[in-house]
């Protein structure tokens, strides 16, 4: 299914720049790596932020989640707790335990990550 074409036909939005795609090798050095389970191919839509962009990203995130896509925490706009739980499952508990062990008062956890990880 061509998400962008279908989205354009149903919502009238089209990204105004080309998409970027690349391969990422498996990475188990970072607990919340999006290539933890193996090599991945990523397709990243790009835009200047034109009207409709954020709504597109919200729907694109859902589309990717439904296909077992994994977000990149510091670059994926509009993450929700549901997307994060679906993508990282039990690794979130390991992350919570590590955060509690090394930062028991939660001083280094900002509101954004707290809402996604805890």
Automatic annotation (TrEMBL):
<protein>
    <submittedName>
        <fullName>Uncharacterized protein</fullName>
    </submittedName>
</protein>
């Amino acid at each position: 299914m061509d998400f962008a074409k279908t989205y354009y036909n149903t919502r009238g939005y089209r990204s105004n720049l080309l998409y970027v795609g690349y391969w990422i090798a498996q990475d188990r050095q970072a607990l919340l790596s999006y290539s933890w389970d193996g090599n991945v191919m990523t397709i990243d839509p790009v835009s200047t932020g034109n009207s409709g962009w954020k709504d597109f990203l919200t729907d694109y995130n859902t589309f990717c989640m439904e296909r077992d896509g994994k977000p990149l925490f510091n670059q994926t706009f509009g993450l929700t707790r549901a997307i994060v739980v679906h993508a990282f499952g039990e690794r979130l508990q390991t992350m919570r335990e590590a955060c509690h062990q090394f930062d028991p008062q939660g001083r280094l956890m900002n509101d954004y990550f707290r809402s996604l990880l805890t």
